[in-house]
Structure formats: C-alpha cells, structure tokens
What we know:
By secondary structure, this protein is mostly helical. It has one domain (2-155): Four Helix Bundle (Hemerythrin (Met), subunit A) (Up-down Bundle). The protein is built from 4 helices and 2 strands, in the order ααββαα. The chain has a two-stranded antiparallel sheet with strand order 1-2. A hairpin with a 2-residue loop joins β1 (73-74) and β2. α1 runs parallel beside α3, α1 crosses α4 (117-155) and α2 packs antiparallel against α3. The longest helix is centred in the last third of the chain and has 39 residues, at 117-155. It is elongated.
Amino acid sequence: xxxxxxxxxxxxxxxxxxxLMPTIMxxxxxRPALWPVGTARAIVAIILMLGGLSLSIWTIVYMRQRGKGNxxxxxxxxxxxxxxxxxxxxxxxxxxxxxxxGTLIYLLxxxxxxxxxxxxxxxxxxxSIMMTQVFSEEQRLRRDFGEEYEAYCQRTRRF
Length: 159
C-alpha cells in the first residue's frame, strides 16, 4: 500500500507540474497557437523546459536514494514518505528547494514558449502559492532536523 501511495503522489505531482500548469497557462492566455514559434524563442523555451525538468527529476531520484523519502508535504499533509536524512549535497548543494527551482525553470520555459502576459501571471501566482508551501516545509524541517537544518540554511540559499 505504501508503494502505491508513493507512486500516486509522484504521478499526481508530475501531472500537476508538467501537464496541468502549462495547460492552465495556455488556457488563460486565450489558447494561443502553439506552433509556429520563432526559432530563437523555441530554443530558449526548450532549453529552459529540459533544464528545469532535468533538475526536478535529478532531485526526485536523489531524494529517493539518499534521503529515503520525500521532503515535501502538501500544506501539512504527507504526499510521499518523508525523508529520513537531511539532504545537503547533490542538487541540494545548489539551493534548499531544487525540485521547486526545476519546476519554476520548466514553467518559465512554458511562459517563453507561449509568450503571453497571462502565462507569466499564472507563473507568478503559482510561485506565490508555492512560497506558502516552502515556509510550511521549512518549519517541518526545523522540527525534524533542528540545528543541522539551521546550519544548512545559513550556508545555502532558499532558491
């Protein structure tokens, strides 16, 4: 049952961030044509999307192998098993939220592809909502890892 719950958590997260968010951006932007897109804009968008997706996937794989779980709660509710160890290396050397950073870079790529102000508005709104999640997660990590987490915060940026 635990494996199923974990699989569903990752599947829902992937669907939300990789498919649903760009779709919402496209819809609120008035459903602009997705093709043709200028070559330079397409290249920048693809680089951002692949780079962001790569960072997020690296983080997921890393946290499963090294952290033995997932640091993310969805607003106080455990989505997947929580990490058993504080991760401060691998993608967590870059910043304290590499999965979210990767997601934001991916979605920025979608904004570049769509090139619509409403798509940017959705990204800003998404970021604002996720900051609430980040603050909640930081409180939990402080409770779970105490001084070790505080020291990590002192040497590593949030984003």
